[in-house]
Amino acid sequence: MPVTDVVIVESPAKARTIGRFLGSEYDVIATKGHMRGLSSKGMNVDIENDFEPTYSLERGSGVVLTEIKKKVRLADIVYLATDPDREGEAIAWHLLEALGPKALAGKEVRRVVFHEITRSAVDEAFADHGVLDMDLVNAQQARRILDRVVGYKISPVLWSKVRRGLSAGRVQSVALRLTVDREREIEAFNPVEYWSVLTRLAKSVDASLKFRATLHAIDGKGGDAKSDRYLVNNQEESAKLVADLEASAYQVTKVVKRETKSRPTAPFTTSSLQQEAARRLRFGATRTMRAAQGLYEGIQLGSGDPVGLITYMRTDSTNLATTAVAEIGDFIKNKYGADYFGRPRVYRTRSKNAQEAHEAIRATSVMRTPESIGTHLTSDQRSLYDLIWKRMVASQMTDSISDATTVDIEATGGPSGTSYTLRATGSVLKFQGFRAVYVEARDTISDSDDSEENVSDTSRSLVPLDEGEAVNLDELKSEQKFTRPPARYSEAMLIRTLEENGIGRPSTFAGIVSTIEKRVYVEREGTRFKPTMLGIVVNDYLVQWFPDIMDTGFTASMEEKLDEVSRGDIEWIPMLHEFYDPFDETCSEAKEKSERVPRSLLERPTGEMCPTCASDGKESPLVIRIGKNGEFIGCSTFPACKHTSNIRVETGVKCPETGGELLERKQPGRSRPFYGCEHYPDCKFSTNDRPLKEPCPECGGLLVARGRNGAKCVTTEDYDGPAPEAVSDGESEGASVSVVA
Q: Residue 706 pLDDT more than 60?
């Protein structure tokens, strides 16, 4: 057989793309992920022997390793082309260790690194090859060993003190604490009453020209500085104010116009991509990274070779390559005009401990517009690529320019003789700049919105007004409101908070979020995370007995030390010893001194009695417990009585086949619910999409939510249009919940 050089990558898709670029002189083979790791059977870390790890082949890797050995035997050069980060470096090192010195005898081993899978990037990497970076390998080893030690030392404590089957992680536990702390903020929040005064005024010369204004000051004294509004405290004060305003005369006293500029946001990092995909596309972090992986590894575009469409998607850098910026600049000038591109923009990352300075996530060529390649992509890939491409282009465009106008109107002549200042604000877009392509979505601050008060002032345009001009009152509205607590974390908000606190790294964000959900420490209510009873109990125990592990500052400092290892500034084994010795003492103290958590803290009464016990003449309350698949109902006398039943979550929608109630259900191991008939197993009807209470406008059948604002009829499947206005935002009106035995 002819001798060919061997190139080793992680995934078959990446192997196919690179193989097309390199040609027949190279044999490209995939490891199919990690080949070696710490076995799940035991800790496999010898703490007494300087944390010596015992690695073993991952399940199914033996066949792949045998095939790689056959190809390596015939080669002169072995190229390691795994991903350009700590994990990729570690995968390459583990492969060499698994192959062993005998298989590599007489072979030259070269490390090649590229941040995009395009022909030019691959050619450049092979021309400028290097060697494995053992500092990166050791940083990854230290992270895995650190996480394994923490998990295997704390989990047995949780088993004995809380409940069997529990586990804890070094980083995930901090994410859990964030959700629990936020829940307690919400519970402790005391709503404060206030009355909001909104007016609509009209020009006296033309009553059709109307505009909104809010109460800003009374007798020259301003109100809330943050909202720029004067908030009335009670109904009595509101009634007096309304009476005054209804009898007042209105005159414009001040008009201020100023030009404002808005800058575009930086191109995507891993964290910001996950956040924006959650806000705009409602993708979870795992779904986002799955789609991004496919775009990175290569897509077949027509009859040509597969090509990587985006740069490496695990990064905390906001840098763009000089060549990419030049190409983007030319594209902007040709498509939008010279006014839309000034000079190249450089951004700074928000990450507290940015490391491994790759490029930002961008399209590998700006000329591959979303419209030109969309037919070759899956739905998820198409949506995500559209975000990445637009954000990349917008990041290099000029500022948007607006004329912001602030108008003060004095209201005088009311019964009390009080002078009121109303303020109207608005903005007129003069030059789109980057807004011609893309504007970043915003996090929802609260779980509910006030339709008028939450409209951004910059989105309103004002009618022309002059100082001294008289205006008339057209409408006056005073509404009772209450301050609202902070919102629970959405997935995007939680990832952003972790990043801002220096917790986790680009490759870990998705895993952190999915882990606390899989462990049933948190559950989703709509798009928000709410800690479960179990999550709260575990959090409180860990905060009491393992305060360092649960401290955001301490966890961030450990990330900093891992970064120092990756840079070669410190040695990884002494770093592990420094952490372990006090940690081990804490574990021993918790085992010896902590009390077992009362079972009552893991239960919630339903107000119903156990039917099994009732048949024996006993009265035993039913309680809600949490199992590995979520909450369920059980008898309070367990294990004496093993009665269990599911919690009934009603949707208020009837099954189209039997007329029975459609119930929200969950499958083991899956966070997303499905909806099935209450008469199961006699009726097998089910749908993965949320049923809507409004019937199909065409046939009266069952509508389910599709996409952000869409709906589809599952009865006839003829209707595929917008959702009814009653549920126009794509959010559920809220399922009714009743607990039954």
A: yes
Q: What pLDDT does residue 56 have?
A: 94
What's the mean pLDDT in 248-259? 94
Q: Is the residue at 536 inside a domain?
A: yes
CA atoms of 355 and 20, how far apart (whole Å): 32
Long-range CB pairs of 672-679 (<8 Å, 24+ gap) are: 675/651, 678/648, 679/655
How many residues are listed for the chain in this entry? 741
Q: Which two structure tokens, joined as six digits, stand for 398?
A: 């000029």
Residues 6+ apart with CB under 8 A from 573: 50, 51
Whether 470 and 416 map to the same domain: the answer is yes
Q: Is the peptide bond before 611 cis (omega within 30 degrees of 0)?
A: no
> What residue numbers bound the domain in which 627 lies?
603-645
> pLDDT digit string (tens) for 497-536?
999 998 988 888 889 999 999 888 998 887 899 999 999 9
Please check whether residue 195 is in contact with residue 235, taking contact to mean a CB–CB distance below 8 angstroms. Answer: yes
Instruction: Specify the pLDDT at position 455.
Output: 39
pLDDT band at 724 (very low <50, low <70, confident <90, very high): low
For residue 436, pLDDT beyond 60: yes
* CATH number of the domain residue 538 falls in: 1.10.460.10
Other CB atoms within a 10 A radius of the CB of residue 208 amount to 7
Provide the mean pLDDT of the chain: 87
Residue 707 and residue 733 in one domain: yes
Give the chain's domain count. 6
The stretch 140-156 carries a mean pLDDT of 94
Spell out the residues 6+ positions from residue 496 whose beta carbon is closer than 8 angstroms to its own: 271, 275, 443
Both 680 and 725 in a single domain?
Answer: yes
Residue ending a domain, choose from 425, 455, 482: 482
| Active site (catalytic) residues | 312
Higher pLDDT, 330 or 451: 330
Do residue 554 and residue 625 come from a single domain?
Answer: no
> What is the spatial distance between Cα 529 and Cα 87, in angstroms, rounded to a whole number?
29
For residue 369, being part of any structural domain is answered with yes
Q: Is the preceding peptide bond at 639 cis, omega within 30 degrees of 0?
A: yes
The CA distance from 385 to 292, in Å, is 8
C-alpha span between 131 and 568 (Å, rounded): 15
CA-to-CA distance for 480 and 503, rounded, in angstroms?
41
pLDDT reading at 264 higher than 90? yes
Same domain, 510 and 417: no
Per-residue pLDDT at 223: 66
Six token digits for residue 159 = 């088993």
CA–chain centroid gap for 136, Å, is 27
Q: Which residues contact 558 (CB under 8 A, 6 or more apart)?
A: 146, 170, 579
Q: pTM to 2 decimals?
A: 0.81
Structure-block tokens of residue 660: 């029975």
Task: Give the amino acid at 49.
Answer: N
Tokens 């975000």 correspond to 387
Distance CA 99, CA 29 (A): 14
Same domain, 69 and 124: yes
Rounded Cα distance, 671 and 515, in Å: 11
Contact between 263 and 499 under an 8 Å Cβ cutoff? The reply is: no
* 598 belongs to a structural domain: no
311 and 231, same structural domain? Answer: no
Asked if pLDDT for residue 351 goes beyond 80, the answer is no
Mark whether 282 and 182 lie in a shared domain.
no
Q: What is the DSSP code string of 654-681?
A: E-TTT-PEEEEE--TT-SS-EEEETTTT
Tens-place pLDDT, residues 442-454: 765 444 344 344 4
Judge whether residue 637 has pLDDT over 50: yes
Domain-embedded: residue 722 = yes
Per-residue pLDDT, 225: 56
DSSP state of 739: -
Selection from 200, 221, 224, 222 nearest residue 210 by Cα: 200
- Which domain CATH number covers 326? 1.10.290.10
